[in-house]
Each structure stands twice: as structure tokens, then as C-alpha cells.
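Session log. Operator J.P. requested a structure for one protein chain; no other inputs attached. Running the standard single-chain path with C-alpha cell output.
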Amino acid sequence: MSRKIEIFDSTLRDGAQGEGISFSLSDKLKILTKLDEFGVDFAEAGNPGSNPKDLEFFKKAEKLGLKTALVSFGSTKRKEINPEDDDNLKALLTANTEYIAIFGKSWDMHTDKILRVSLAENLDMIERTIGYLVSLGKEVIFDAEHFFDGYKSNPGYALETLKAAERAGARTLCLCETNGGCFPEEIERITKEVIKATKTSIGIHCHNDSGCAAANSMAAVNAGAVHVQGTFIGIGERTGNANLSTLIANLQLKSGYFCVPPESLPLLKETAHYIAETANIALPNSMPYVGGSAFAHKGGMHVDGVSKDPATFEHVAPESVGNERNILISEVSGRAALFAKLKKIDDSLEKTDPVVKKLTDKIKALEHQGYQFEAAGASFELLALKEFGRFQPYFEIIDFKIISSSYSNEDNGSFSKASALIKVRVKDDFEITADEGDGPVNAIDRALRKALEKFYPNLKEMRLVDYKVRIIGGSDNTAATTRVLIESTDGRRSWTTVGASKDIINASMIALLDSLEYMLYINREINFN
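Structure written below.
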């Protein structure tokens, strides 16, 4: 039977410490619910006494009926005070969680310079804190902060901190690679030495400052650790924490360990993107397993290879983690890439079908006009569906007008505002609306969606994630072309569309209309079959 590896997610605390991350109470509850649905063992969410929001969070979370164990987090007691009198520990207990994570110092330098206590007193703080919580029936996970730096500085003392926690009844000793500067070989060696010297189950908590957090966590598991901490999409202090979406797939799909229920793995990408969306950050396309480019193929040899046998250029099947193969259309991808892309849209298509050559010629003509479909898969799919005769527009723009204005002053800087008037037709119905925004594109987007939401309510779920403009230089006798790429999301999926024109507003409008059409198409608000 596969060895069980406990997954301890710290997105709600460690993740919240990442630059630019700020979770509302609603955000935290949504992420917690998603982690519970996915099946992580533990979700650690901070100290209920740190602020009113977290106190309210624990009260509401207690009523959710979670399968995932909710964990509160705090430090060892302060020096020269009894555990029962420590305000931090009192606050932890208000969370009413069965599991509590307690961090303590394992590096003698920190004991001396940060806590400013003797080595013996630090051991006493660890043992008495954990012993007190265990006496109240709590399951305590001891996070040995800066353990690996401490071990390299003073191995005997670092081990004594673990043994103090062990004597007090900690259920897990988690070795924290807090500075993120270690390499896998030293993590594996030290973890093996710790396992020989202790009897309690060992965990690992890595930061990514040297780019090794996932590899370091794997090394610890290979050495015998059975508990892995991290954040689901790797967010966290400085360069982030160990990325659990990477680790879960590595451990369960490729290394034979058991981390989450097997039915959860195909939800990996969806869960990662949901958390990124809730955190209001763009998930890097290059992220292993769950990124948009994780199974993307561009070079002709790669495309030809995966079309014959996916294992030639894919280390796991995309669908095993809820992702999909993405064949990129570009000047280096060739006819094989185009056909592979079209085959996904219409499996009955043959290479000799006239539509393949017709589309090839059309794409070349559009690229000559400034379009580029490599990063705009949604626009390419719509183009193909129209050529196949399998797409019917959901709406038609009858007219639109834009009024732009800008002003500036010394106190408030520069401002740009725009108003848009839109007239649309959906079947036999017409709708005229107006709205304003920060610039013409925002104004068009707001007015257009206001008009269409009457007919298609789920457009309220859609928002623009990114807007890129590139000027493609013209010659002395020709005007420059503007290419616009728009990335959109409905909170579950993301897609990119492209528009190109001599006029930036027109290019933006083309990309925006494609984005709305694609949203409606993938949600099948109308069934034309």
C-alpha cells in the first residue's frame, strides 16, 4: 500500500503574507471550502487573536462541516510567563480547533538574538507550551523554525528543540527551511538524521528563495517525512512557499505516494486557478501541471510527436491533473500543428479536407494583417468554428459611440475618462445602453456587458484579467498596426483573444467581442444543434 503523505495547506496564512495578497473574510472562506472539496488534510489559517477578521473567520469556519482539519497557528509562550497566562495561547484556544500549529526557535542564533533567552529557557518554552495544549486535548504540530540553518549551526541543540516538543506530546515535528537557501541533498541528509534521532512523525516546510522548495520537499519525503506543508499555488513571503499543486502531482502521480483522494487529482488545475482568481493574481502560464503552458506545444517536431504518442513530449497526461494539451499556432509550428489544433475541435477532420488549406491560408493572411494566434487560442477556436459552419453569433453590434476626456492637475495627477453608447441585437431584440469607464476600452466593456447581461446573465461572472497592446511598425508609406490581446476569466477558466487594426479602439473591440462570444460559447447559453 502506498505511504500516506499528509498535506498541510497554509495558503490562508503563509500565502496571505505574500506581497500584494490580501484576503477578505469572504475570500478566506471560499478558499477554505475549495481546499476542503479538493481533499487536503489540514488547512492552517492563522491566529484568531491577531485581528477581528480572523476571529470572525474561525467562528464561521467552525459551522462549515469540513472534512479538512482546520488548524490555528501561533508561537510558543513568552518568556517568564506560564502558558495558561499567555495572551497568544489564550487567543489560539478561542479558535476551538482540534489541531494547533506552534512554531518555536530551533536556531541557537535566534534564541540568543531574537528571543534573547538562554538555550535552556527556549527548550522550556517549547516543552511547556506544547505540554499545556496537549493537556487540554489538542493535537499539536511543532513547526521548528529555521531548523536546517539551526542544525548546520548547532546540530545537537536543534535536535534538543525537537526532543522537547516530542516529550511534551507533539503529534508531528515539522522541519522548517525558513530561509529557503538549502539544496535537496542537505535536506535529505539532515531529515534522515532527524528521523534516526526521534520517534515522532516528521514533516517538512520549505520556502522557495533558491528555487528549490518543491525539490527540497520531495527530498524530505524520500528521506522519510510523512507530512508536507506549503501553499496551494506557491504564494507566500518573499519568493513564496513550496507549491502544493506541484508537490501533490509529483508525489501521487509520479512517486507512488498517497496524498489526496484519486478523484481529486483531475481537479488540480481548477482548484489552483480558483485560488489564484480569489487572490486576484495571475497564475503563471509556466507553472508545472496547472499552468496554461504546462502542456503547450509549438515546435513542429514536438507537435508531430505528441500527435503520434503524447508520451514523447509529455511526462504525464494533461487530463490527469485537469489540464489539456494546447497546440500553439505560429510561424514555427507548421501544418501539423494546425491540423492537430483543428482535430481537437472536429475529430472527424482529415488532413486532405479543403477546410484545412482554407484555414491555413486565412491564418497567414490574418497574421500578415497583424494578428497572432499563438497566445490567443480562443480567437483561433472561434475562427475555426466559423469556417466549419458550427458557430452562430450570440449578438450583433449595431452601433457604438465613444466620447473620451482627460484632464490633469498638480494635486491629483492625470485622469482619463470615457463614455460609450452601445446598440446591440440579440435575435429579434434590441438593447441600447451607455456606461463610462477609465478609458475607452473599459467604457466599451462595461456598456457592452450591461446590454448583454439582460440576455445572458452569466456574463456577470466574466472579467478582464489582462490587456496588452503592441504596435507593429509600418513603413514610411503605411500606418502602424495595433495588436491587442485580452485575457478574460469566468473564475474557473481563462482564455485569450486577439484583435488587430490600424485603430486601437477597433482592435480592442475585435478582441473584446471575441472574448464575450467565447464565454457564451463555452457556457452554451444557446444550443444551436
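Operator note: Residues 525-529 have pLDDT under 50 and may be disordered.
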